[in-house]
Fold this sequence. Notes:
Blueprint: E1 3-6, E2 9-14, E3 22-26, E4 44-52, E5 61-66, E6 69-70, E7 72-77, E8 80-86, E9 92-95, E10 104-112, H1 127-130, E11 135-136, E12 140-145, E13 149-157, E14 161-169, E15 174-181, E16 184-191, E17 195-199, E18 214-222, E19 225-234, E20 239-242, E21 245-248, E22 251-252, E23 255-260, H2 274-286, E24 291-294, H3 301-310, E25 313-317, H4 326-343, E26 349-356, H5 366-382, E27 387-392, E28 405-408, H6 417-428, H7 444-447, E29 454-458, E30 478-479, E31 483-484, H8 485-490, H9 492-496, H10 500-523, E32 528-533, H11 560-563, E33 567-571, E34 576-581, E35 587-595, E36 598-607, E37 611-617, E38 625-633, E39 636-645, E40 655-657, H12 662-669, E41 673-677, E42 682-683, E43 688-691, E44 695-697, E45 702-703, E46 711-715, H13 717-722, E47 739-742, E48 748-755, E49 761-770, E50 773-778
Parallel strand pairs: 23-24, 23-32, 24-25, 25-26, 26-27, 28-29, 29-32, 40-41, 41-50
Antiparallel strand pairs: 1-12, 2-3, 2-4, 4-10, 5-9, 5-12, 6-11, 7-8, 7-10, 13-14, 14-17, 15-16, 15-18, 18-19, 20-21, 21-22, 30-31, 33-34, 34-37, 35-36, 35-38, 38-39, 42-43, 43-47, 44-45, 46-48, 48-49, 49-50
Amino acid sequence: MRKIISLNGRWEASYDGRVYDRRLDVPGTVPLKSESYPDPESLVCYYKKTIELCEEDLNKKKILKFYGSDLITTLIVNGIETGVHEGGFDSFEFDVTGILTEKINEIIVRVEDRPIGELKDTITGKQDWYGNVTGIWQPVELIFNDETYINSRRLITGKDNIDVSLDIVGNWDSIEYSLFDGRSLESYRKVYTSEFSINRNDLKLWSPESPKLYDLVLEIIKAGEVIYREEFKVGFREIIQRDGEILINDLPFYMKGLLDQDFYPETHYVHPSEEYLREQLLRIKSLGFNTLRYHVKIPPEKYVELANELGLLLWIDLPYAVKFDSGSKKYLKKLREDLMKRYSKEPSFCILTLINESWGVDLNEKEEMKWLEDFWFDSKEKIKDRLIVDNSPCEGNHHVRSDINDFHFYFSYPENVHKWDKAIEDFSNDIFVPFEEVEKNKKEEDLKIEKLPKIISEFGVWGLSDPVLWKGNWMKYPLFGIKKIEEMVSEIVPEFGRDPSSFFKELQWQEFAALKYQIEKIRIGKSIRGFILTELSDIAWEANGILDFSRNDKPFTDYLKILNSQILPIMDRDGNLYISNISNEKFNGELIVRFNNDVVEKKIVECKGMDVTEVSHITVPGKRGMIFLSCISEGKTVSENSYATYDNIIDGDVEIFEELSKEAYESAEKGNTVYVQMKEPGKHEDFEVVGSDWNVVANRNLTWEGNWIKGFLYYDKGLMNRLNYMNGGRELEGIFTDNVMINCDGYNILIGKTIGWNIAKCACLIQKNIGKGKIIISTLNLKFQN
C-alpha cells in the first residue's frame, strides 16, 4: 500500500555545507536582507534532516518528491549524490530506493541560486520585482510504494462525466472506483483499463456558487486483493466560452476577481499557515468576489484545495522569464505539463494564461507570434476542459489566439476619467480589439474575436498602507534604487504636517473612490463579462491591494461588497442612471433616488439577467450633500449605492485672467482674488508648468499622470474640510488637464499630488498672497458661475 511521510517542518541549515548553525522552515525561503536585496542573504543553502524508517518500509520503493525548489537542487542521501534538478517551479522526484536502506538516514538538499540580475533568460516570475526566491518553497514528501502503484493521473472534468487516465507501474488485474458524498456511497464500478469515465448521473455540480465536491477512491486489484489505494476530491463542472459568455455548467458567469501574487511580509513566497490562507480566501468570498487570478507562479496544493472547497474559480498564469530563449520556452511547456499532472483533477482551476503582457517575448516579431500561436494550439489540444489565454495583454501588445478577449487597463483617478471612460467604451463596443492575426490572409470569421467573452483582466490604483500595521522588513529595501520606503515615509511629517497613519488612511479612501468609479464603469459596459482587480493585497512597495501586505483590511474594504452586488444601481458623472444585473435572473422592481433626505425620482425598472438597463437622467446638485440610489423589489431593498456632491472648489468672487500678466498681479495687490489657469508648459519666475507625461524619475516610466504608481491628492486643510475630502476626489472628476506645476515652494498648495510613497510632489492649484489680495494659479479646468 502507498504511504506518504511529510518532510515539512524545521530543517537544519547551513550556507557553507559545513557548519549547520541555522534553522529554516520547509516550505520556506532563505531570508532577504536589506544589505543583500533584491537577493537573499545567501544564494546557496544546505538543508539537512535525519529520518528514521520502520522495518516494513525498508524494502518498499521509495520516492523523494519536491513540489517546488528554487533554483538548482542537488539531493545527497547518506553521503551519496542522488540527483540534480534545475528549475524553480515544477515538481520533481528522485528514486531513493537503493540508497535509503537504513533505519536512520541523513538527507541533505543543496539549493543554489544566482543573482536575480543574471537570470534574464530563466523563468523566475516576479522575483525581479519583489525579491529573489532561494530555497525549498513548496512541500517535500517521502513516498513508499509496493511493486504496483499509480505513477500519475490525468482527469478531464465535465458536467456529465469525469474522464480518468492513469499511468500505472506494475502488474494488476482491475481497478475499482468508488465515489462518496461523506459516508454515502454514490457510485461504484470495476474497470479493466487504465482509462475510464465516471458518470455524474444525478449528482450535484461544482460551481463557485455551490462548490460541491465528492471523494473519489481508486483501488487497484490483483488476484482479488487491493494492492494499491488512493483517495482525492473531485467535482463535476464544465467551463466553455460561447457567444460572448463564459458558461459554467451552461449558465453565464460574471467574473468578479482579484489578482493574487501570493507574497507575504514575513514568509515571502510561502503562506504562513493553512489557517491563515483559509481566512484570507474566506474574506475574499465574504466581499462578493468569485475568482482569483493566481499570478505568474505555480500555486501550492493547499491553495487549490481551498479554492475547490470554498468556491473560488482559479485563473492561473504561468511564470515568465525576462527574455525567453529556447531553453526557457521548453521549460515553460514543461511547467504546463507539470501543472496539469498536479491539478487536472481540481474543478476550481478553470483558466490558464500562457504569457502575461508579452513579458519575455516580442509580439511585434512574426516568429514570436507564430511560437505563441503554436503554443496555444498545443495547449488547447492537451487541455480540453479549461479556457486558455495566449497572452494576457496590456498597452503595446496583443492577443494572437485566445478563448477570452481580455485586456489590462491602468488609468489614474480622477485625473484620467475621460481616458478610462473611452477605453472601456471602446473595448465594450468592439472599437478597440486587442488581437493581431499571425497570417493577414486569414478570414476574420476564423478567429471569431467578436464572439469571445470580454474581461478587464487587470486594473486598479494604489492606496498606501498604515505604517503602524507593517510587518517584515520590506520597508527597509530601496524602491527603484531611490530611497528606502521607511525613509520616504519619515518625510511625511515635516513636508505635510501630518502623521503618516492618518494621512495614508485618507489616501486609501482615494483608492476606493477610484475603484468605485472604475468598477461601476465596467459594470455598465453591456458586453463586458467581468473583471480582475489588481489586487488582493499590497505586495511590499506595490500598494494597490484591497488589503495591506499583512492582509489587514483597508478602511474601505467592506464597501466592496456593494460594488459586487448582483443588482447594482449606478449613476455616472453626467447624472445618467443605470441598473447593472450580473445575475442570471430578471430584476423587476423600482429605483428610488434621494438627495439627502428628499426623494427626487422613482422609476419602475425591468432588467434582464446579465444585462444593463439605462433608467433615466438626473441633474446633479452643485452643492455639498449625498445622492442615494435604492433598488426595491417586492417591498424589500435589494441593493443601494451612494454618491457625494460638492461645493465649488474656489469660494467667493474671483477675477479671471487668461495669463499670468502684470495686470493680474496689480489686481491682486489692490485686494482682489485673481485666478489664472496655466494652459501651456513653461518656466515662470517662481514655479514651472510641465506636462503630466513628464518623467518623475529618469528611466522608470514613472510620470506625474500616475496611471500605475498613483499620484495621491493632498489638500489645504480648509479646502479639505469644505469639500468633504474623505470621499476621495470625486469633485475633481473631469477637470484635470495634461499639465501640473512643480518647484512652487513659495506658494500655498491648495491641491497637490505626491507620487507613490512620497517619491516626488507636484501641484494643481496654488495660492499666494499679493498685497491686499491673493493670486490663485491652476492647471485645473475650473468652471465659474457668472
